[in-house]
Design goal:
Length: about 325
């Protein structure tokens, strides 16, 4: 048995969603969730079809995920960018509209190598010039991948470029095992143990190994970011949850020795016909972990979101671009 990892508690934690599949300016504040104002930060765009000639700038949603994580410890704040969304400028544009400064980011964690979590790194470079920031990834992050459908057709996924990221000035830190950030108060899970019998990865997902393609359903580079909030328990931030959201939460609790699951935030990957059959088992697995807060996002899928809201009415919070969870 592995010894528990001593994850130091933080005094406060803020997770602000910079990119998600959903934007909804009519959502109200809800418990620890704070919403942006109806008209964003108050900026406007040219719109000649309107009498006034201007329209409010609204936050942009994309099929991708990104969050700004702010940890406070002993009166000092640190900011981490977790994932970067699916288009070059989507995340940094939402940051501008939320009046957030990319220059405040101290380090970056990329949950896995799929392009809908990586492409926005280009916007970070455009905003910061030569960033000189550390980027934490799993060694399999760089794999060239594709999805093979039942019809036999293939779709090759856009792949991250090591030369482009290193050439832009990022310092790449590759770790397969768990690793600490910010003096031991933030944990990257590294490779997540697969312990459930229903979370079996992505069927048809393949990786190019040597000259040929091989099955890669487990997507072993999938990792989460974990913070222990003082007197509240663990907060687990997931990009897609390819390891399985129950596997991921179980692993975080086991490795840290913490018994309380304060919050699960991010992608739970339960969307579409390949994953909807495991929604009930996933909900049962989450019920056994008793999360205080659930913020399903990105690839969770509308059926799973509805079931999570029904099964966990006190914990469920609708995710959307701009939503800020304050703990």
């Amino acid at each position: 048995m592995l010894d528990p990892i001593n994850l130091e508690p933080v005094d406060a934690l803020t997770v602000q969603v910079l990119m998600d599949n959903v934007t909804d300016p009519l959502l109200a504040d809800e418990g620890p969730a704070k919403r942006p104002t109806l008209f964003g930060a108050g900026g406007t765009l040219r719109a000649d079809v309107l009498v006034e000639g201007r329209a409010p700038e609204m936050l942009v949603a994309e099929h991708g995920f990104s969050a700004l994580v702010t940890v406070t410890r002993r009166g000092v704040e640190h900011r981490i960018l977790f994932d970067a969304g699916v288009t070059p400028m989507g995340v940094v544009e939402n940051m501008r509209r939320l009046e957030l400064a990319p220059s405040d980011i101290e380090l970056i964690v990329l949950s896995h190598g799929h392009w809908d979590h990586v492409t926005g790194m280009e916007g970070v470079v455009r905003e910061l010039g030569r960033p000189n920031l550390p980027v934490y990834i799993h060694p399999m992050f760089w794999r060239h991948r594709r999805v093979t459908f039942a019809s036999g057709q293939h779709y090759e996924l856009p792949s991250p470029s090591r030369s482009a990221l290193e050439g832009a000035g990022f310092t790449i830190v590759e770790e397969q095992q768990p690793s600490f950030l910010l003096d031991g108060c933030v944990l990257i899970t590294g490779e997540v143990d697969r312990t459930t019998d229903f979370e079996r990865g992505l069927p048809g997902h393949e990786a190019k190994i040597g000259a040929g393609w091989e099955p890669d359903p487990l997507i072993l580079d999938d990792q989460a970011l974990v913070v222990r909030v003082r007197d509240q328990g663990l907060v687990v931030l997931s990009g897609c949850g390819h390891a399985g959201i129950v596997n991921t939460a179980r692993y975080a609790l086991k490795r840290t020795g913490e018994e309380r699951l304060c919050a699960l935030i991010g992608g739970f990957h339960l969307s579409g016909p390949k994953f909807e059959p495991i929604i009930d088992a996933t909900l049962d697995g989450l019920a056994a972990l008793s999360p205080s807060i659930l913020v399903p996002s990105h690839c969770t899928g509308w059926r799973a979101v509805h079931e999570l809201a029904r099964r966990f009415p006190d914990a469920f919070i609708q995710g959307a671009v701009g939503t800020t969870i304050q703990l």
